Automatic annotation (TrEMBL):
Source taxon at top rank: Eukaryota
InterPro entries: VTT_dom (IPR032816)
Matches recorded under Pfam families: VTT_dom
Keywords from the UniProt entry: Membrane, Transmembrane, Transmembrane helix
Name by which UniProt lists this protein: VTT domain-containing protein
Bilayer-spanning residue ranges: 12-37, 147-163, 169-190, 255-275
Organism of origin: Coemansia brasiliensis
Span of domain VTT: 95-194
């Protein structure tokens, strides 16, 4: 029994950790929804339509294996049943993304309490007062900064619920203006876990449903028969891979085209994540070196300026 409880806890902690990795870091987070949660939801959806029931496990040694009695059902698995099968993992992942937004909030709050402004906030402040031409990205960042400062909980909730890359500044902005912790975290948790994750899960379930796939294949049949044949072959290979326990060993060992493409995408994104992390550390170190150099220069030039301001000695 204790082993089952440990496995259950470990399963959901795993999804929370993936959520944290998705949002930690300013724009350098690992996109774990695309890499892990999205494929998991898609696999559950395809398996549900393959088994025409939800009588299969999603973890453990017998995961994604249709029961023999599942083939009796004739109707495809409904949307609600699939959602109930994956909603816990989705909510845990969303909770992790909310937790991952806390470090910038606490750092900016501590800097503000110490009378120091965050480097990102200083950059935005300089751009706001410069009056020069700003890029589209900079204008969007400034808009986020102003809206979060003005609308508080409602603004945080809206930005957290809508998938966008600009929410990285929410923790910095809220921390700098000392927004109460539960206001920031509550709005972020509701927006990311209960709203955003649920919307993304619904989109993936709908996209990989039997009806949607049939509609896409029908469209490809009229537009490009070659693309239709390729898509149909890939889908069949994936369906066979999901039900590999019922296939010969030679079929299990074969790798589909989609699997190869997906592995390449995962590798590229992991490399990008590593490079982005190194660049972030390099920029932080460079900023510290420049600040130290300016302080040392100020110490050297201060006595010189003081000597110049002294009146000449009278003989």
């Amino acid at each position: 029994m204790f082993h089952s409880v440990d496995a259950w806890i470990g399963w959901y902690v795993y999804w929370v950790a993936l959520g944290v990795l998705s949002s930690v870091g300013l724009g350098a987070g690992l996109h774990t929804f695309v890499l892990f949660l999205g494929p998991h939801i898609a696999r559950v959806t395809l398996m549900a339509h393959e088994c025409t029931s939800m009588a299969f496990a999603v973890r453990g040694s017998h995961a994604f294996q249709c029961l023999d009695t599942a083939a009796v059902a004739a109707e495809p698995a409904p949307f609600g049943a699939i959602m109930r099968k994956v909603i816990a993992e989705s909510l845990c992942w969303g909770a992790g993304t909310a937790i991952g937004e806390l470090p910038p909030y606490f750092i900016a709050r501590a800097a503000s309490a110490a009378g120091k402004s965050d480097a990102e906030y200083r950059r935005l402040q300089r751009k706001a007062t410069a009056g020069g031409s700003l890029s589209l990205k900079d204008r969007a960042l400034l808009s986020v900064y102003r809206l979060l400062r003005r609308f508080g909980f409602a603004g945080i909730l809206v930005f957290a619920a809508i998938p966008n890359p600009l929410f990285d500044l929410a923790g910095i902005t809220c921390g700098h203006f000392k927004v109460p912790f539960w206001t920031f975290f509550g709005a972020t948790f509701i927006g990311k876990s209960m709203i955003k994750a649920t919307i993304q899960t619904s989109v993936v379930i709908t996209a990989f449903s039997k009806e949607t796939i049939a509609m896409v294949l029908s469209f490809l049949q009229h537009v490009s028969p070659w693309a239709h044949d390729l898509a149909e072959r890939v889908l069949r290979q994936q369906a066979a891979a999901f039900g590999s326990s019922h296939l010969p060993q030679t079929s299990v060992k074969s790798m589909s085209l989609l699997g190869s493409v997906w592995n390449a995408c995962v590798t590229i994104m992991l490399i990008y994540f590593a490079i982005s992390t190194l660049e972030s550390f390099a920029h932080s170190y460079l900023a510290e070196v420049r600040s130290w150099g300016q302080q040392q220069l100020a110490k050297v030039t201060r006595p010189i300026k003081h000597d110049r301001n002294l009146p000449p000695s009278q003989s």
